[in-house]
Amino acid sequence: MNKKNLSDIYKNIDDLLKRKEKVIVAIEGNSAAGKSTLAYLISYVYDCNIFHMDDYFLRPELKTQERMQEVGGNVDYVRFKDEVVTGINSRNSFSYRPYDCKQMKLKEPILVEPKKLNIIEGSYSMHPTLANNYDLKIFLQIGKKEQKTRILKRNGELMYQRYIEEWIPKENSYFLEFNIKEKCDMVF
């Protein structure tokens, strides 16, 4: 992400904040493309809430054969919409419970105070059940070589294999099935 791209994003956010009482920005894209980093860069400039789609991967008891065959079905978009999107739209304090994939349980509730700007970052943030709730949609893409380098550095060889064999193919199917990149306002 270069300075010009960041400047364009900030300009779009500034314009939205001038016109709207509440702004929700989605940051979607490939694994290791920089979604979380971009969310944090935005948070250095703006007072905002950040929500991570990684906190909403499907819990084991919901992983039915039918659900796992559904494109984008490996994320709990129903719970995300009920907890986070509904909470943001209420403009009141609310709480949500992130799911810890390693411990396979919901964590303690996190209390959220309403803020004018809210960032939703992560793959599957543009799921069709969620996409029309956003004011700005950003898609980040990355080349395969750089993606591999970043995943290996961040997650190690064992997890990289899981990304290659499972998670990246699921993301790619989701991007294609729902035309995610084409539905975004900004693509980098």
Keywords:
188 residues; alpha/beta; 5-stranded parallel sheet; two-stranded antiparallel ribbon; globular
Describe the structure.
With 188 residues, the chain is α/β, with parallel strands linked by helices. Helices cover 43% and strands 18% of the residues. The chain contains 5 helices and 9 strands. The protein starts with a helix and ends with a strand.
In brief, what are we looking at here?
By secondary structure, the chain is α/β, with parallel strands linked by helices. It has five helices and nine strands.
Summarize the topology:
Elements: H1 3-19, E1 23-29, H2 35-45, E2 48-52, H3 65-69, H4 77-90, E3 94-96, E4 99-100, E5 105-106, E6 110-112, E7 117-121, E8 136-140, H5 144-177, E9 186-187
Parallel strand pairs: 1-7, 1-8, 2-7, 8-9
Antiparallel strand pairs: 3-6, 4-5
How helix-rich are the residues, as a percent range?
40-55%
Q: Tell me the β content.
A: 15-25%
Mean pLDDT, rounded to whole units?
Answer: 95
Poorly predicted runs are none
